[in-house]
Amino acid sequence: MFNPPVMEPPPGDFSCPHRPDISASSDMDCSFDSRKFSFFLDLFSGASSPVSVAVRKLHADAIEPVDIIFGQHCDLLDDKVFQNVVHLASSGMVGAAIAAPYCSKHSMATLKPNGPKPVRTPTALDGLPTNTALQDLQVQESAAVHDRARYILSICANYSEDSRGNEAGCRN
After folding, report:
1. Which of 54, 89, 90, 139 has the greatest count of CB atoms below 10 A from its CB?
2. Strands of the chain, DSSP E
3. Measured distance CA(78)–CA(91) in Å, rounded
4. What domains can you pick out in the chain, each with its CATH number?
5. Of all residues in the chain, what percent are helix, strand and coil, respectively (each to 5)?
6. Measured in Å, how far apart are the chain's first and last C-alpha atoms?
C-alpha cells in the first residue's frame, strides 16, 4: 500500500463552529437536526486543499479535507475511515461534496512516449497480462479508491435532507 509522507494539516481552520466534533476521519454522533447545517466534504483534496480553502473563504462550513497525504487517519482505503465517511455522507449533513482521486496508477501519461510504465490501458482496465503481482495490486488499489469515491458521492447526493440542492462531483 502507498504510504506517502505525512503532511501538515490543510491550511485554514476547518473546525465547524456549530459541530466541533465533525470530522470525516473519526466516529461522530449524527443524531441532530441536520436541516440547520450543510457541510462541504472534500475527498482527495491535495496538499493545499484549494477547493476547501475557497469554500472556507466564503464562510461556509467545511469538514476537514480527507486525503491520505495528511496521514493514515485520512486513508479511504482503511475500512474504518471509509465507514466513518459513509456514515457522515448518509447523515444528511453534507450539502456538497467533491472528489478528485489520485490517478498515478492509471494516468493517461503512462500511454505517452517516455511516460511511466502503464499498469493498465483503456483496453485493459483490469490490468495488463504482463503485470507483476505488485502492479496488479496497484491496479486493484486504484480501482478501490475510485469505487469508494463514487460510492460516497452517490450517498451524499441521495441522503441530503433535500437532495435537489445537494451537489456531488468527481473529477479525474
Report:
1. 89
2. 39-43, 94-99, 167-170
3. 20
4. 34-107+147-170 (3.40.50)
5. 35, 10, 55
6. 21
Q: What is the pLDDT of residue 150?
A: 93
Locate 4 and state its grid cell. 506517502
Angle value at C-alpha 29, between 33 and 89, nearest 5 degrees: 75
Identify the bridge partners of residue 41 per DSSP, sorted by sequence position.
97
Instruction: In whole angstroms, give the CA distance from residue 8 to residue 70.
Output: 6
- Report pLDDT for 41: 92
pLDDT of the chain along its 172 residues, tens only? 445 444 455 555 555 555 445 555 556 555 555 455 578 999 998 888 899 888 888 888 888 889 888 888 889 999 999 999 999 898 888 888 999 887 666 566 667 787 777 888 888 888 889 999 998 998 898 889 989 999 999 999 887 655 444 454 444 4
Per the CB < 8 A criterion, the answer to whether 85 and 21 are in contact is no
Q: Which of 101, 15, 98 is nearest to 51 (CA)?
A: 98
Nine-digit cell at 102? 489520485
**CA dist., res. 80 & res. 133, Å (int):** 26
Contact 161, 34 (CB under 8 A): yes
| Identity at 83, one-letter amino acid code | Q
